[in-house]
């Protein structure tokens, strides 16, 4: 009722609303929709409510590639946001753009913020720091590949669902049994390049590219055509030929097959947790990513996928202070622990992991800590710190094309990987030229 | 015989064509000029620096066997899309032209798909042929055929051709039908009295009289297949499997917007511009000679 609002209450409301104009606005562009989008909005709201100096406005700008393009186009037009979410394969592009970004360590120093880079999990932080340990962007959502198991499908094929699946040799034997028992889809995968080449290389401590996987310089060359990678891709190719590995597509198309209960084994990101938990009508389980028995140094640690937050150049000092406060807020243990438990993404700080354990989440949801252990059990080496390659999104496209040739039986693993290396190197040289 | 209207002076005609010239300049000449200029550089994505490389981008592209293979893919794709969309449209138009009852309903139904955007059409077809839940895939499975366009290059090409041609059939149908209806009945009746059967009449009278329409559609459809099928490719195959459906315009997109390699992307646009210009010139010089207006 209109008459119910007194003029005084109206004035009070106005007075309460006015200070907003005096607050510094911080623009944050991200790539999340659906449940993840809601969770990001929640984080932003609680930051805005926690203090009165800054207001963060979060805007969805499309998928990862589209968000990066929007940020680049905005920078060219002088309209860039304060914070831009960039997926891990865009890291080299952002890093090379000195003048377009403010490194996070610099930001924290200038803002005089209390910031401890050592609080972050090594293998998460490593992806986004320089070779001398300076943090360039703030890790946000990070996941790592694991093996998802449909326990009912194993039982149905007469296989003990608790059978050991730590090595690819053991997985191979189980695939044989599944096929014999008449399974249409013994195994499928998502993100083939990320899981079966990038992580495979890190996990077996062999280089994916020279110059410390690109960390040490732009003159890096791809090196994923070594014996370990060839052995693995050849085995996968043989499984594909025999109908034991079913290829569903370049992205995470295989997830639909697994969640519908058609596939027994599924290699996918740990962040697949939310979707699998809500849809799967069967008994499922998370296992560590398998490794090849007999490869020296395996298993090492797996590497991350996901995105980090980059601070764009050309804003006021006042805004940068707000950005520093917001980034610090995001990495606080409470916020991180909640994010980790809601999404299946990794906790990016040790404190958040400890807090999650104290809250009893791992006991209530067995297997959710496997990804964390897999990444943190061993100190990363130069081969397992991460990847920093220019034009990497396109190189992944080339890898997809060449792997498809193996799955279709058109090429053997060695030929396909050699070709992928050769074609990818051309792109790396172009990137080097553009950023010299 | 041609009709000509003569204007006195030059200002009025200039004023009348000015809007068209401005639009062409702003939306065509300016961007095309930019593309030509950019194709001589390797810029970094953020526009912070730019290196002049002369014809280096073109040299890089033309020495890449995968880029050259993309020409062949584009030629196959465009030819198939044009043939399928025009062939089916002509067939349907001839049938609809002979209808006396209910032709309005058929016409309306046949024109519908034109309202569907290419990307949406792509999603529709993808859904029907989805390797796991697709209806068509399921029926093919019953017949013992294992449809898998995710790995089979021929099937992937077939699917993007059909999806691209589908919406285009409506457009071509409209023009063919109008063309057919413009042919004087007396000519056809005279031929019928002389004893010419349907097929003979079609071959010797109808098709030649339809040639202006056919020629126009040929030009328009090839341009469509070159440029506007992007949405279909993007939603169905993303250029795969391997490089089976990577047509030239898709590569412009993926190098420019996925790879942020604006120099190469600009150079590809210029090459595409040249290819389509040459094609159009050939069509007007050689094929138009056989057209009777």
UniProtKB/TrEMBL annotation, chain A:
Subcellular location: Periplasm
Signal sequence region: 1-22
Keywords associated with the record: Signal, Transport
Listed transmembrane segments: none
Domain of life: Bacteria
Record-linked Pfam families: SBP_bac_8
InterPro entries: Bact_solute-bd_prot1, SBP
This protein's GO CC annotations: periplasmic space
Main location: periplasm
Presence of keyword Lipid biosynthesis: no
Coiled coil (residue ranges): none
Entry's family note: Belongs to the bacterial solute-binding protein 1 family.
Function: Part of the ABC transporter complex UgpBAEC involved in sn-glycerol-3-phosphate (G3P) import. Binds G3P.
Assembly: The complex is composed of two ATP-binding proteins (UgpC), two transmembrane proteins (UgpA and UgpE) and a solute-binding protein (UgpB).
Protein name: sn-glycerol-3-phosphate-binding periplasmic protein UgpB
From TrEMBL, chain B:
Family matches, as Pfam families: BPD_transp_1
Assigned keywords, A-Z: Cell inner membrane, Cell membrane, Membrane, Transmembrane, Transmembrane helix, Transport
Localization of this protein: Cell inner membrane; Cell membrane
Predominant location category: membrane
Superkingdom of source: Bacteria
PROSITE patterns in alphabetical order: ABC_TM1
GO cellular component assignments: plasma membrane
BP terms from Gene Ontology: transmembrane transport
Domain ABC transmembrane type-1: residue ranges: 71-283
Presence of the UniProt keyword Transmembrane helix in the record: yes
Membrane-spanning intervals of the chain: 12-30, 71-96, 108-128, 156-183, 204-227, 266-287
Topological relation to the membrane, as annotated: Multi-pass membrane protein
Function: Part of the ABC transporter complex UgpBAEC involved in sn-glycerol-3-phosphate (G3P) import. Probably responsible for the translocation of the substrate across the membrane.
Subunit-level organization: The complex is composed of two ATP-binding proteins (UgpC), two transmembrane proteins (UgpA and UgpE) and a solute-binding protein (UgpB).
Family: Belongs to the binding-protein-dependent transport system permease family.
Protein known as: sn-glycerol-3-phosphate transport system permease protein UgpA
Naturally occurring in which organism (per UniProt): Rhodovulum marinum
